[in-house]
Design brief:
Length: 117
């Protein structure tokens, strides 16, 4: 059974930092592209950051220079370090795993991030 377990969400003040983690089980982690998506109320889910199985990263323009995605294949875990958070970063953040050949895609249950004073 595949599981993507996110953790680390919460409430933070503008300008603060949060670190999200996503622990994967039931997949051969090193064969998967990993990504963080987010969905704010009334908006479509959007890609925040992605990292390929080889460690190549990409980011949404809105988070470049503030967020950093990384992965630890030994721990089957992907991370998202979020700095200089803004109220517009408020959303449910979802972990995504996509097989490098595109044949399987999995989602986590989501974790709430709220940026507010």
């Amino acid at each position: 059974q595949v599981q993507l377990a996110e953790s680390g969400g919460g409430l933070v003040q503008p300008g603060g930092s949060l670190s999200l983690s996503c622990a994967a089980s039931g997949i051969i982690f090193r064969l998967y592209h990993m990504g963080w998506y987010r969905q704010a109320p009334g908006k479509q889910r959007e890609l925040v950051a992605g990292i390929t199985e080889r460690g190549r990263t990409n980011y949404a323009d809105s988070v470049k220079g503030r967020f950093t995605i990384s992965r630890d294949n030994a721990k089957n875990t992907v991370y998202l370090q979020m700095n200089s958070l803004k109220p517009e970063d408020t959303a449910v953040y979802y972990c995504n795993a996509e097989h490098m050949r595109g044949i399987y895609t999995y989602w986590g249950q989501g974790t709430q991030v709220t940026v507010s004073s």
